[in-house]
Amino acid sequence: MRVVEEKPDRSLERTEGLSVWLYLLERPPGPVNLPNVGEPRVGAGMLQFKAHFLFTPCVGSGNRNAMQIEQDILEIVLRAFESRPVLRGPELAGGLEGTDAELRVHLEPLGLEGMAPIWSAAGGAHELSVSFAVDIL
């Protein structure tokens, strides 16, 4: 299985895999340029934010077991983040090596009302998908 870093509408035509799409990046409220008061914390100096990702299984059209394969792919994702919800600096790929940064991943339950604007922005239909919020500390 491969991971595709594109909007789900572009990747759903491909063979089996997983589309991971960053659809929202939030910064905590309040000033970000004031010095920390009190004890220094892990990751001090890094800008804290929360990233919201949409995970959508991709199964090529014409596969008669597509629904089962999509559910199996999402089960793998859910189990992976359930067993390991916190990732730390050396375990991360992509520029956070050598830091004390932590990523805390948690399921973000969204109903149809929450998913509708996401799928509208993705330009696709409401497909089987799950949203995770990632706190970067």
Describe it.
By secondary structure, the chain is of the alpha+beta class. The chain has one domain. Helices cover 24% and strands 28% of the residues. The chain is built from three helices and six strands; from the N terminus they run E-H-E-E-H-E-E-H-E. Strands 1-2-3-6-5-4 form a six-stranded mixed β-sheet. Strand 1, helix 1 and strand 2 form a beta-alpha-beta unit. The mean pLDDT is 75.
CA radius of gyration is 17 Å
Pairing-aware structural class of the strands and helices? alpha+beta
Low-confidence stretches: none
Described by the principal axes of the CA atoms, the overall outline is elongated
The averaged pLDDT comes out at 75
Percentage of residues in DSSP E strands: 25-35%
Spatial order of the strands forming the largest sheet: 1-2-3-6-5-4
Distance between the termini: 29 Å
Reported for the largest beta sheet, the result is: 6 strands, mixed
Q: Helical segment tally?
A: 3
Tell how many strands the DSSP assignment holds. 6
Q: How many discrete structural domains?
A: 1
SSE pattern? EHEEHEEHE
Helix content: 10-25%
